[in-house]
Amino acid sequence: MVYAMGSIGLLGFLVWSHHMYIVGLDADLRAYFTSATMIIAIPTGIKIFSWLATIYGGSIRLAVPMMFAIAFLFLFTLGGLTGVALANASLDVAFHDTYYVVAHFHYVLSMGAVFSLFAGYYYWSPQILGLNYNEKLAQIQFWLIFIGANVIFLPMHFLGINGMPRRIPDYPDAYAGWNYVASVGSVIVTIATGLFIYIMYDQLVNGLENKSTNKSVIYMKNPDFVESNSIFMLNTVKSSSIEFMLDTPPAVHSYNTPAVTA
Question: CA 212, CA 226: separation in Å to the nearest integer?
Answer without folding.
Answer: 18
